[in-house]
Amino acid sequence: MHIPENYLSPQTCAVMTAVMVPVWIMSVRKVSKELPKEKIPMLGVGAAFSFLGMMFNIPLPGGTTGHAVGGTLISLLIGPYASCIAVSVALLLQALIFGDGGILSFGANCFNMAFVLPFVGYAISSLIAKHVKSEKGRFIGAAVGSYAGINAAAFCAAVEFGIQPMLFRDSSGSALYCPYGLNISIPVMMLGHLTLFGIAEVVYTVAVYAFMRKAQPSMLADTGIKAKKKTSPAVKLFLAALIVATPLGLLAEGTAWGEWGADEIAATGIGYTPAGMLNGFEWKTLIPDYAVSGMPEWIGYILSAVIGVAVLVIVFKLIAGIVGKNGADEVYSR
To answer: Domains in the chain, ordered, with CATH?
Structure first.
């Protein structure tokens, strides 16, 4: 679901970024005012869960792949506004260092995965938990909400892909950017997410949510337990286990639909490479595709996971030192 560079026109990227700016501003304000300062570093843990979840690629028949995102999961742990910030930072890290998602398309990717996904997932999860007042209701809500959230995000991405050939063509009628119309982008994107990728999101969300309720219930607002600054040893061990397991994501062969490079797209059957992709913006990343030069692929993948998690945790600890001074001291109540 990570939209690469030059699949969307600069105009589309500008519009999507403009849409996200007020969302980011509102999210920062909500978190700084309502989230207890003790919980702000937990955004780093939430962002790490999202980052690692997106490294576990799952194959779909036909050669494409997908993954969980964890946006609804973070919403259930520390709220949808905190999830928006956490997933946005994770996506920024992926784009800047690993080349997973574009720099220009960062706003669009955040709209889909850091805004639509967590807010839709949280709204549905909360609605179900409100009507099914039990522990079982919380988990049913988590499952249904996460499934709906990732599919809503996938649909938005499909529309963003699909409108490109309608709006941006050269004088010969060839698409300048993504060449697949809505008649292709929507069925293909939704097929994978309504099936395997949606199920992966449900499993990941429910499993980690259940673990966190036992391992560090103070992180969750609905437990009513006073927040703690330090991450529990169990959570640290769990993150370490996920890091070590990330090479399982390498078992999925192929590339996610709509994430091909400019040198690959002509071979997908359209017979040409759109001019906007050939002459578009290019960002040189430090660790492209989570591969470290000179190292076996699986070691590079683990090292990338370590770097990603470490950066996210450190970033949010630094933010906590700034924002936390003005944060609320009471337990966050959604």
So the answer is: 10-326 (1.10.1760.20)
DSSP conformation class of 295: S
Residues in the chain: 334
Q: At what angle do helices 80-93 and 42-53 cross, to 10 degrees?
A: 60
What pLDDT digit, counting tens, does each position of 119-132 carry? 999 999 999 999 99
How would residue 225 be classed by pLDDT, with cut points 50, 70 and 90? low
Q: Tell me: the pLDDT tens digits for 288-329?
A: 999 998 999 999 999 999 999 999 999 988 877 765 554 444
CA distance 171 to 293: 42
Q: Is 36 exposed, middle or buried (0-12, 13-18, 19+ CB in 10 A)?
A: buried
DSSP string, 81-112: HHHHHHHHHHHHHIIIII--S-STTHHHHHII
Do the beta carbons of residue 215 and residue 235 sit within 8 Å? yes
Cβ-contact 79, 37 below 8 angstroms: no
102, β-bridge pairs = none
In sequence order, what DSSP letters do the residues of 20-82 get, joined into one string?
A: HHHHHHHHHHHHHHHSBTTTTTHHHHHHHHHHHHTTS-EEETTTEEE----HHHHHHHH-HHH
Cα separation values, 111 from 21, 50, 155, 197, 253, Å:
10, 15, 12, 19, 27
What is the Cα–Cα distance from 143 to 72, expressed in whole angstroms?
A: 9
pTM for the full predicted model? 0.92
pLDDT at 226: 61
Q: Residue 284 contacts by C-beta under 8 Å, 6 or more apart in sequence?
A: none
